[in-house]
From TrEMBL:
The keyword Transit peptide does not apply. This is Superoxide dismutase. Residues 2-84 form the Manganese/iron superoxide dismutase N-terminal domain. The keyword Metal-binding applies. Gene3D superfamilies: Fe,Mn superoxide dismutase (SOD) domain, Iron/manganese superoxide dismutase, C-terminal domain. Signal peptide: none annotated.
Length: 198
């Protein structure tokens, strides 16, 4: 199986004013495309050819850095586009809300910890909500890593590489994270991944 770049699930200008058309053009058409192209080149002739994306990400971690970085970022970005939607944020599906209260104290606390994960991730990386041992936890990872390689299943992630926010927010990463949580998150998709991971 080779990697392929999916279309965005919405128009390039659909997330404005929180994420601009220009950001999505660069982020999707240049950055994600490069992960796909580089990943395919590195996959060719490797022991991972013919494996599923998740198997490639897990199998190449710590073994084949070039392939892992590109496959990991391909996996992360495939979900990232779906973790956002126009008019996102807002009310959470009931069961997900209940589980966040149970495991993290409150929805506000969960959102704050998730934002804080992104603020404190030094350099490039991601902040996450993930399911680990049956519980929802907050995690942060550098570069192309994800909870997948740390024994957990990601259900929400936010890209804190500068390419994701610098055009719109310059150095104000906390403002980008707040806008992501309050105005962009597709909580229905998060609930879907939670249900599948449970
Ligand atoms: Fe990115």
């Amino acid at each position: 199986m080779s990697f392929s770049l999916p279309d965005l699930p919405y128009a390039y200008d659909a997330l404005q004013p929180y994420m601009s058309k220009e950001t999505l053009e660069y982020h999707h058409d240049k950055h994600h495309k490069a992960y796909v192209d580089n990943g395919n080149n590195l996959l060719k002739g490797s022991e991972f050819e013919g494996k599923s994306l998740e198997e490639i990400v897990k199998g190449s971690y710590g073994k084949n850095a070039g392939l892992f970085n590109n496959a990991g970022q391909h996996y992360n970005h495939l979900h990232f586009w779906k973790w956002m939607k126009p008019n996102g944020g807002g009310k959470l599906p009931g069961e997900l809300e209940k589980k966040l209260v149970e495991d993290l104290g409150s929805v506000e606390k969960a959102k704050d910890d998730f934002i804080q994960g992104g603020v404190t991730q030094f350099g490039s990386g991601w902040s996450w909500l993930a399911v680990k041992d049956g519980k929802i936890v907050v995690m942060k990872t550098p570069n192309g890593e994800s909870p997948l390689v740390h024994g957990a299943t990601p259900i929400l992630g936010v890209d804190v590489w500068e390419h994701s926010y610098y055009i719109d927010y310059r150095n104000r990463r906390p403002d980008y994270l707040k806008a992501f949580v309050e105005n962009l998150v597709n909580w229905e998709y998060v609930a879907e991944l939670y249900a599948a991971a449970r």
